[in-house]
Amino acid sequence: xxxxxxxxxxxxxxxxxxxxxxxxxxxxxxxxxxxxxxxxxxxxxxxxxxxxxxxxxxxxxxxxxxxxxxxxxxxxxxxxxxxxxxxxxxxxxxxxxxxxxxxxxxxxxxxxxxxxxxxxxxxxxxxxxxxxxxxxxxxxxxxxxxxxxxxxxxxxxxxxxxxxxxxxxxxxxxxxxxxxxxxxxxxxxxxxxxxxxxxxxxxxxxxxxxxxxxxxxxxxxxxxxxxxxxxxxxxxxxxxxxxxxxxxxxxxxxxxxxxxxxxxxxxxxxxxxxxxxxxxxxxxxxxxxxxx
Length: 292
Prior knowledge:
This protein is an alpha+beta fold. The protein is 21% helix and 26% strand.
């Protein structure tokens, strides 16, 4: 599942701890919460490696699910996602819930990289801003990279197929997929590998909606970075727009250039000219027949 942490209403790395799971932001119960857990949360968010915890008892109806309870991070855990806990269950807390407020100390988080509140290109977070392709000849061809936890990372090519590529191309706004490429066909990426074993049905709006394993298992290397080659034509583009660039949102097909477009234009104009000449020849013959 695509998972994330955030400090809701955070200000200088301080706020209510929430976790993103199953497409929804929810809370974390305070049972068994240890200083080690707090430090790993701060580390995960880029807010230093230490902090302190405050809890406030909430009563009555509480909005949103409580995804986690009894999170018990120990000295052997180097990441929050490695810590044992109770099973993921929206009913893991009772009606009375402790609201966890964490204040991290040390390195402050860059506000432009705050997870869940900022995107790489704008303050309005959209799926299209969380994906890019690198190393290709245009913006619809290259190594697939995703924006997550404040940085760009790659996707492992294990089980990477045309259904996954269809979703990636759709999320990029690049029309249908032409081919899938593996083994770092457009060069090896750097940084984290965010997703492994991606299994899309092909109908999802974004790769983040597909089933996948987190890429922090260590079973994949950048020599296995996945890539795509998209057609480059958005579904709403007409052939006329593609040829004349009347619509600025239209993108020429991947791998095509001005020469191929010129060739197509010449073929169309030539066919029209031949048709016109044929009509004129017919009119001349008819006129001669009438004259006789």
